[in-house]
Design goal:
Elements lengths: L15 H14 L22 H14 L12
């Protein structure tokens, strides 16, 4: 019933604390003007949708904060 190669309807589950945090974010998101004309869940600091380059920059910043070396590693989301 559950297969990674299945391209039909997928069911995913979220932990209750994840749902709670997402609800909080959705409430906060309503107060930020850059989301007024967007249905995107998250936008960059400049109001653009995240793409591969901006996600790579974010991932590198997170690695820097966590003191994780990524220079000789292939990272992906």
């Amino acid at each position: 019933d559950e297969s990674s190669k299945n391209d039909e309807n997928w069911r995913t589950s979220l932990q209750e604390r994840t749902v709670t945090m997402l609800d909080h974010w959705l409430d906060q998101r309503k107060t930020d003007e850059k989301y007024d004309d967007s249905d995107k869940l998250w936008l960059t600091l400049y109001g653009n949708p995240y793409g591969s380059a901006s996600l790579r920059q974010l991932l590198h910043r997170l690695c820097d904060l966590a003191d994780i070396d990524y220079e000789n590693h292939s990272l992906s989301w």
